[in-house]
């Protein structure tokens, strides 16, 4: 039996995995925007409708491609390219369902924008 560990908590002190995910949520910084995947195009590319009003063809960089599985309707964080920023971008993070609920509660993800899908 481990003496230093509180009962029912993991080593970071969180009760559930959901609390851990919400504490580690990645928010948009700089020119990053939140978007919703409309269509998968193949070859690591997807068409994403971003909350700034633009529809971008986004690629998934190699280091991210190994760790996430994307489907239509997923909420993602998009980094627009410096060149052709309104047309192209990179998907750098995928939000999990608990994180999407947290974004809705904080007002960063408006419910009306999600109803269109």
Model description:
This protein has 117 residues and is α+β, with helices and mostly antiparallel strands. The protein has a single domain (29-115), classed as Beta Barrel (OB fold (Dihydrolipoamide Acetyltransferase, E2P)). 22% of the residues lie in helices and 29% in strands. The chain has a 5-stranded mixed beta barrel. A hairpin with a 7-residue loop joins strand 4 (75-80) and strand 5. The longest helix is centred in the C-terminal third of the chain and has 10 residues, at 97-106. The termini are far apart. The mean pLDDT is 81.
Radius of gyration: 17 Å
Structural class: alpha+beta
N- to C-terminal separation? 50 Å
For the biggest β-sheet, the strand order reads 1-2-3-5-4
Provide the succession of SSEs. Answer: HEEEHEEHH
**Annotated CATH topology:** OB fold (Dihydrolipoamide Acetyltransferase, E2P)
Count of individual helical segments: 4
What is the molecular shape? globular
Number of domains: 1
CATH architecture level-2 label: Beta Barrel
CATH superfamily grouping: Nucleic acid-binding proteins
The main pleated sheet reads as: 5 strands, mixed, barrel
Stretches where pLDDT is under 50 for at least 5 consecutive residues are none
Tell me what portion of residues adopts beta-strand conformation.
Answer: 25-35%
Number of strands: 5
Brief descriptors of the model:
globular; 117 residues; OB fold (Dihydrolipoamide Acetyltransferase, E2P); 5-stranded mixed β-barrel; alpha+beta
């Amino acid at each position: 039996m481990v003496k230093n560990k509180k009962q029912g908590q993991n080593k970071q002190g969180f009760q559930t995995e959901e609390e851990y995910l919400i504490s580690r949520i990645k928010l948009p910084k700089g020119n990053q925007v939140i978007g919703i995947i409309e269509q998968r195009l193949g070859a690591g590319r997807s068409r994403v409708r971003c909350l700034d009003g633009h529809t971008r063809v986004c690629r998934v960089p190699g280091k991210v491609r190994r760790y996430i599985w994307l489907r239509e309707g997923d909420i993602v964080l998009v980094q627009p390219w410096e060149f052709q920023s309104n047309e192209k971008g990179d998907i750098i993070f995928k939000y999990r369902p608990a994180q999407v609920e947290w974004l809705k509660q904080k007002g960063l993800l408006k419910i009306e924008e999600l109803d269109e899908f």
